[in-house]
Design goal:
single chain; 73% helix; mainly alpha; 177 residues; globular
């Protein structure tokens, strides 16, 4: 699984501009998208790790820690979105920095559980790797399909809007670079 994540990460870094266009980015929006995505791509492991940690902690009877980390991460994101974008004038990069900081904080808070005495999880090598893989795939198919459908819906919605340079509220009301 880790290898698949690294391969996707590298491919997205290499083909980021075609991906922006595929997902509905116009010539006007791509600089803003790249400002936001630039840092987010480099903090991608936190965004991938977060749902895994959440599931492990919930299964290890620590849902309160998941909730606390979510609230702390959201508070960091909200405050620093405002602080970086407006007082600091960092624009989309500042918003990306705030989002990355909030997500990283969530991961670090949840990771503390693994070093606590309350953690009952242990690493165990599975005996029958193929049967375990099949069982994981069956169990995760519904959630995976749900995530894939969200990606497809976002793709369709982004491509329904015209890509004209003059019809975007965001572009007309943004500061010139």
């Amino acid at each position: 699984m880790g290898l698949v994540i690294v391969i996707i990460w590298v491919l997205v870094l290499i083909f980021k501009f075609p991906i922006y266009r595929l997902l509905g980015g116009s010539d006007v929006l791509i600089p803003y998208i790249d400002d936001y995505a630039g840092l987010t791509f480099w903090t991608y492991p936190f965004f991938i790790l977060l749902p895994f940690l959440s599931c492990f902690l919930r299964n290890d009877d620590a849902p309160k820690l998941v909730m606390i980390s979510t609230l702390v991460g959201a508070a960091i994101n909200i405050f620093f979105d405002w602080f970086f974008v407006f007082p600091c004038g960092m624009g989309m990069f500042g918003a990306s920095l705030a989002t990355s900081m909030g997500t990283a904080a969530q991961c670090f808070i949840m990771a503390m559980h693994f070093f606590s005495k309350k953690c009952t999880l242990k690493l165990v090598a599975p005996g029958k790797l193929l049967s375990v893989f099949v069982r994981i795939t069956k169990n995760g198919f519904g959630a995976g399909f749900s995530q894939l459908s969200l990606i497809i819906a976002t793709f369709i919605i982004n491509n329904l809007f015209p890509r004209s340079q003059n019809n975007s509220y965001f572009c007309r009301h943004s500061k010139k670079r």
